[in-house]
Each structure stands twice: as C-alpha cells, then as structure tokens.
Design brief:
Layout: H1 2-8, H2 11-37, H3 39-55, H4 57-66, H5 71-98, H6 104-119, H7 121-137, H8 145-154, H9 159-189, H10 193-223
Helix pairs in contact: 2-3, 2-5, 3-4, 3-5, 4-5, 4-9, 4-10, 5-8, 5-9, 6-8, 7-8, 7-9, 8-9
Length: about 220
C-alpha cells in the first residue's frame, strides 16, 4: 500500500492528483462554512455541484441562475466543479494506462474516450492544441474538459500543457454559456418562476435519461 501511494503521488500526474484533492477540500470547507452562515445559499451551491456532476454544465448553470445566484457564484462554482473532475480523472486514467492502477468503474469510460480520440485523430493531428481547445470548449456529451484532457494525453501533449489548455477553455466556455443562459433565465422569470423550474426539470430529466440509457436498457437486456 505505501508503495502504491508513492507511485500515485509521484511525478506530474501525481501533482495534478494532489491539486484535485486541494481544490476538493477547499470546496468542501467553503460549503460547510456556508451551511453555518446561510443554509439556503449552501443548498443552492450544493445543488449546482451535483447538477454539474450528474448532467453537465448547462443544466448546472441554469439551476444556479434559476436559484437567483449571482453570475460570479454560478460561474465560479461550475468552473471549480469541472476542474475537480478533470484533475481527478485525468491522473487516474494515466495510472490505468500505465498499469499502475486498475479502475473497473472507469474502464468502460476510458474505452469510449479512446474511441472518440480515434474518431477525431486527423483533426487533432492537424490542429493540435487549438483542436483540443475547441473540443473542450464544446459542452456536449463525450466532449468537454474530462474527455479532452485524456485525449490530450493520448495524442502526446505534456501533462501541464493539457491541464492549462483545458482550464482556459473551460473558463471561457462556462463564462460565455453563463452569460447566454442568464439572459434566457432572466427573460423567462418575467413571466413566471414556475416556468423556469418546469423547463429545467424537463431538461435535466432528458439529459439524465440520455446519459444513463445504455445502463438502463443494458440491465433490462441482461435480465431478459
């Protein structure tokens, strides 16, 4: 066990994993303190984090604005959440790739990422870092910061370069999406607050179904 931990926290990938732990700890401390000061505010922050983890940035941003949080809080919380995911899953993939650590839960996801990388191989070879930036910038399923960071490693980019590109692309993407969604939410709130929450619930439900449909139908087929 000590030897495994030594391998995990050694090198650049180890430093990235340590960064993930530090960001996670800071976010948890912030949420805990928030619960002591303002429970309603803390609940909204927690809601943004879990929405981002489950269905992605766009619903998480919409949730934040519908909950009447400031632009800075919504953007910052989403950026922090996504950087935690990137700096945690990226080094875990590298450890799995090198055979240092096997993570069965993530193996299927890693396989899908490699397929995605092969699908866009020519574009990445042609556009390099700019191609990775655009790939991370687009917030659709099987694109975005996590998949983009792993692809960056697979096409031969250095660890810190990958994380830097992903970080910058994530900040710009979330900020622009935030400005766009804030205008939409503010417009809908003119009519009725319930409309916003009904639409948000519908979008989240659809995205959850699309994200987990393979597992749902896969389990049914196995039973049959």
């Amino acid at each position: 066990m000590p030897k495994l931990l030594q391998k995990l926290y050694k090198g650049e990938e180890g430093n990235i994993l340590i960064l993930s732990l530090c960001i996670t700890f800071s976010l948890l401390v912030f949420i805990i303190i928030s619960y002591q000061v303002d429970v309603a505010f803390a609940n909204r922050i927690t809601g943004i984090v879990f929405t981002n983890l489950l269905v992605g940035r766009v619903p998480a941003l919409s949730f934040g604005y519908a909950a009447d949080l400031s632009h800075f809080v919504v953007i910052f919380t989403n950026i922090t959440t996504e950087m935690i995911l990137v700096t945690a899953i990226y080094p875990l993939f590298i450890f799995s790739f090198k055979g240092v650590l096997k993570i069965k839960v993530l193996e299927e996801f890693f396989t899908e990422v490699q397929m995605k990388k092969n699908e866009h191989q020519e574009k990445f070879d042609k556009y390099g870092r700019f191609g990775l930036f655009v790939f991370v910038f687009i917030p659709f399923w099987m694109t975005g910061p996590i998949v983009g960071s792993i692809i960056g490693f697979l096409i031969g980019m250095k660890h810190y370069v990958v994380i830097f590109i992903v970080f910058i692309a994530t900040i710009i993407s979330i900020t622009l999406w935030g400005l766009f969604l804030q205008e939409i939410i503010d417009f809908l709130l003119i009519f009725d607050t319930q409309i916003v929450w009904v639409l948000l619930l519908f979008v989240v439900s659809v995205l959850l179904f699309l994200r987990f449909r393979k597992k749902i139908f896969g389990n049914r087929n196995e039973k049959e």
